[in-house]
TrEMBL record:
SUPFAM superfamilies: GAF domain-like (SSF55781), Winged helix' DNA-binding domain (SSF46785). This is IclR family transcriptional regulator. The lineage of its organism: Bacteria, Pseudomonadati, Pseudomonadota, Betaproteobacteria, Burkholderiales. Residues 13-76 form the HTH iclR-type domain. GO terms for molecular function: DNA binding; DNA-binding transcription factor activity. Keywords: DNA-binding, Transcription, Transcription regulation. It comes from the Bacteria. It comes from Bordetella genomosp. 8. One of its GO terms (biological process) is negative regulation of DNA-templated transcription. Residues 77-259 form the IclR-ED domain. The keyword Transcription regulation applies.
Amino acid sequence: MSAPAADDAPAGAQTVRRAVALLRLVACGQERGVRLIDLVRMSGLNRPTVHRLLKALIQEGAVEQDPETRRYLIGQEVTLLGLARTRRFPLLTLADPYLIELAQQVGDTVFLSIRHGHDSICIGRRTGHHPIQVLSIEVGVRRPLGVGVSGVALLASLPEQESDALVADNAARLAVLGEQPQDILARVAAARATGIAHAPAGLMPGTSAVSVPVPGPGGTALGAVTVTAMANRLTADRYGEVVRLMRQTALAIARRHQERYPGHAWSRDALADDLLAGNTES
């Protein structure tokens, strides 16, 4: 968890920041929930502070505790508050037709993820026509940047100094997930060199995943388009064609975004040029 913006922040503001940061960590657990010990490790706060904040959040309905597992989950109040902004993901609205088309073209599951602070969040998922669909993550999943190919692709679109700092800030959370910062940085470097984040062995046994960034204003990715499939569907003879279609989709979304928001400076940097050239080498 990143430190408060200023050490001399009023106590009330610091408490709010800590509570919101804790909510983000709880959200990572989705329906599994998160253990108290892991919240302490990931937040960097002491156990009494975390317990006190959780107690207040439970009283407000923002957090729930499973009576059997004792794990903490996002509460109903947060879900209900979110309903006040039903159109809060304009990128998904303009990208959705392209995601549906890509899912039909490749036959496998397509995801759209965005960066939010130190996390990648899945905001859209569309399934293809193949009998076996790899539904590796649910919409709403929040993970530290670099966990999963979408997070790697998003990090790779950032300046190296910035991506390195984000991974360092996430070190405690990555450790809880069994990930090492140096391994994440190696994946990011490979993705930065090729424009592709590829995991031959996906999150689920026997699966594979590949992700490409959607170029946006200033060269930083608007999001990442990911395809997950059974590993035998992303072998060498098919991989290049799938990546070509993914890059075509990413570019179409970027163009649509440029049309929708013409005031934004859409930089045709090396990443965008690579997409335009249709380079599909891995």
